[in-house]
Amino acid sequence: MYQQIIEKYYPDDNQLRRLLLRHSRDVADFALAVARRHPELRLDTAFVEEGAMLHDIGIFLTDAPSIYCHGADPYIRHGIDGAALLRGEGLERHARVCERHTGAGISLVQIEKQDLPLPHCDYLPETMEEKVICYADKFYSKSHPDRVRTVEQAAKSLAKFGEEGVARFMQWAAMFG
Among 74, 99, 140, 144, whose CB has the most other CB atoms within 10 angstroms? Predict the structure, then answer.
């Protein structure tokens, strides 16, 4: 299913598509490994794979030239943009992954305090599948696709969003590690 969505929005074989596919596959494989290590979580693994493969579908709509994105929106909106695309496809559950994976989720308080260009509401992962995908995403940067971050490096990269996200991530590290 996710292949058709990716093909629709990324029809050309170019650097952006290859980067998206590599990053998304890395995140999906990491999230599925968490699911295998923790059968007690009873994760919907088919959905985990689909959600991870589609979590960054909206990046082409953003302005991030260093990762081949030449859209108009600020990069922080890629999750909101992706959610809109997936809602248009009738994929509400997948859309929620898109809008809730940035940082370790972004709260309304963070949006207001930092004056982020996002609609004013909470974008925090709620389901265990959303949390696992968000967690897995923090280990892979599209800017450095050959690197896998450590827990400490991932936590440090979240600090720009505030300590609230770092604390949430570290809780996930204890739960999923």
Answer: 99
CA atoms of 161 and 114, how far apart (whole Å): 8
Question: Which tens digit of pLDDT belongs to each residue from 58-99?
Answer: 999 999 999 999 999 999 999 999 999 999 999 999 999 999
- Contacting residues for 82 by C-beta, under 8 A, at least 6 apart: 54, 55, 56, 57, 58, 59, 95, 98, 99
Q: Which of 63, 82, 112 is nearest to 5 (CA)?
A: 82
Integer Cα distance of 15 and 50 in angstroms: 21
Amino acid in position 32: L
CB 135 within 8 A of CB 176: yes
CB 101 within 8 A of CB 79: yes
Residue 141: per-residue pLDDT:
95
Res. 104: pLDDT tops 90: yes
Instruction: Identify the residue whose tokens are 């570290």.
Output: 170
